[in-house]
Amino acid sequence: MNNFVDETYKRVEQIMNANNLNIKTFEEKVGVSNNSIGTAIRRKASFKSNVLNKILNAFPEVDPAWLLTGKGTMLLKDNNFYSEEPDAVYKNEKLDQLIKTKLIRLLSEDENIKDILLDYIQKEVKNL
Questions:
Q1: I need a labelling partner for 109 at 20 to 30 A (CA). Which of 24, 65, 85, 94 fits?
Q2: 3 in a structural domain
Q3: Is pLDDT above 70 for 81?
Q4: DSSP string, 38-66
């Protein structure tokens, strides 16, 4: 069994530091309730998935795999995905695919999660 310790709060602090944001400003940018991030950091608590999604939406340059696991680097290699250029839709789709691919790869490394994912996929295929 894997002795996983969730230290996502440390990586959230790194994002705040890299962007020179205090907790209040970070919470406003992410769109979460007042002091929810600060409380989680002080308690060294896990973040719910909806908060992690809000963080990734507010900071699209942050590598989701890094945020979840600490593996790799904070920033995506090509941090010019989001843009106002005419090909922005293509770039956003490319980023979405990259995120999905990285998350699937990470999740499939854990045997328990891999089994859960396979069961889920099989149920979904049967419902098609």
A1: 94
A2: no
A3: no
A4: HHHHHHTPPPPHHHHHHHHHH-TTB-HHH
